[in-house]
Amino acid sequence: MRCTAPVRGHRTSSGAAACPVCGRSSYRSYPSYSYPSYSSTSYYPSPTPPRGSGGGGSTGGAGGGRSARPRWSPANSPVTYTPNEVAALDRYRNKVEAVGPRAESYDLFLCHAWDDRRETATELHNLLEAENVSVWFSEKDIILGQPFMREIDKGLAKTRIGLVLITPAFLKRIESGGVSEKELSELLSRDLLIPVAHGVTYDEIRSVSPLLGSRNGLSTDEDSMQDIAKKIAELVAV
């Protein structure tokens, strides 16, 4: 005689009793036992949302899941937005549409800290230009020997909207009242400024500049620099 458990199973007392081997054992004296059915929602903890998937990020533009599609983003766009990002960026899109394209102008004025000019600012500039966005960038647009502040002034006049790369170095610069602070003041006064936080939170920004911190935008805590460049390119396309 062979045990029928491999075929019929012995999860109930009647199943064990029907077995020619186990039916003779003390197993049949055990009470009937049914296994509980655990669902993934009632037993296993929910997985931690991945970075950038919308878990209440630092920008005030994260959260709500990446399911929103802003009106200016092409249907075949490779980047995704959270509903809060769409809400934060919509004000800048309205400004872009109001200004419209102008002859002999740049899409963006890149405001950044002097300390970031060779690395982070250059990376963002190059990614934007790869997306066919024209960017006024002091590292390439200030001609050697020309008055520095006058060239910045002309650059501000030629651009449709500003982009500020906010880093720890940038916050230090605006606290000390350097060139970055002057660029920022002008862009804030025109309300033409898209903030991109890199290595800082919007709470940290607000502690230094409440006006700047109140303008939620994008953050590398939520997106890669490449995806941020793609989002900005979609935002300024007219």
| Contiguous helical run count | 11
Strand order of the largest sheet: 2-1-3-4-5
Termini, distance in Å?
A: 82 Å
Q: Return residue spans where pLDDT drops below 50 for at least 5 consecutive residues.
A: 25-64
Main pleated sheet = 5 strands, parallel
SS-based class: alpha/beta
Strand content: 5-15%
Kindly summarize this structure in a few lines.
By secondary structure, the protein is of the alpha/beta class. The chain contains eleven helices and five strands; from the N terminus they run αααβαβααβααβααβα. Helix 4 packs across helix 11 (225-236) and helix 7 packs across helix 8.
What can you tell me about this protein's structure?
With 238 residues, the chain is α/β, with parallel strands linked by helices. It has helices at 5-8, 13-18, 83-99, 120-130, 138-141, 148-158, 168-176, 179-190, 202-208, 210-213, 225-236, and strands at 106-111, 135-136, 159-166, 193-197, 218-219. It has a domain at 83-236: 3-Layer(aba) Sandwich (Rossmann fold). Helix content is 41%, strand content 10%. α4 (120-130) links the parallel β1 and β2 (135-136). Mean pLDDT is 77; it is low at 25-64.
